Amino acid sequence: MAPISAFDQYLEEDYKVNRIDDSLQTFTSVCSNPLLKNVHLVLFLNKIDILQQKIQAGIKVRKYITSFGNRNNEYHEVSEYFTAHFHQVHRKNNADRRRALYTHLTSVIDTQATQDIISNVRDSIFRGYLQDTSLV
Ligand SMILES: Nc1nc2c(ncn2[C@@H]2O[C@H](COP(=O)(O)OP(=O)(O)OP(=O)(O)O)[C@@H](O)[C@H]2O)c(=O)[nH]1
């Protein structure tokens, strides 16, 4: 789980490290861990409600993440941009393409939507097990 609303925040323990970069570094460690080589990953990009509020308040992503450049400072473009970065980290650390990454944009304070997403994730994991055993 990574908070994608945190693009304008820095670590308390190191004020030079942007919190999105910190999440990407943590995710790189997960993806490059040999013990997790064959484990499918489910990533919740969380706090999208706060991301939407920040964007509506006019906070510019490019001020904090210069690589965002002149893209539109609107929710869909921003969330797609950050999601793509996490997928890129996964791709770089998944040379044999055996592992899947499932990403979900979440706001866990919306308990109904979160419950629906978790049910879908659980269903797809079970479906994967059944396919592996050729039962479906
Ligand atoms: N608005 C909103 N608040 C959330 C969401 N997820 C967690 N929180 C709240 O954020 C606060 C911190 O919780 P977490 O983010 O789980 O904890 P954390 O990772 O230690 O906190 P941060 O470092 O601030 O991200 C709590 O008050 C949560 O209720 C979300 O999707 N939307």
UniProtKB/TrEMBL annotation:
What InterPro entries does the database record attribute to this sequence?
Gprotein_alpha_su, P-loop_NTPase
GO MF entries:
G protein-coupled receptor binding; G-protein beta/gamma-subunit complex binding; GTP binding; GTPase activity; metal ion binding
Name under which the protein is recorded: Uncharacterized protein
Q: List, alphabetically, the PROSITE patterns matched.
A: G_ALPHA
Is GTP-binding one of the keywords? yes
* Keywords per UniProt: GTP-binding, Metal-binding, Nucleotide-binding, Transducer
- Gene3D superfamilies per UniProt: P-loop containing nucleotide triphosphate hydrolases (3.40.50.300)
Q: Which residues bind GTP?
A: N46, K47, I48, D49
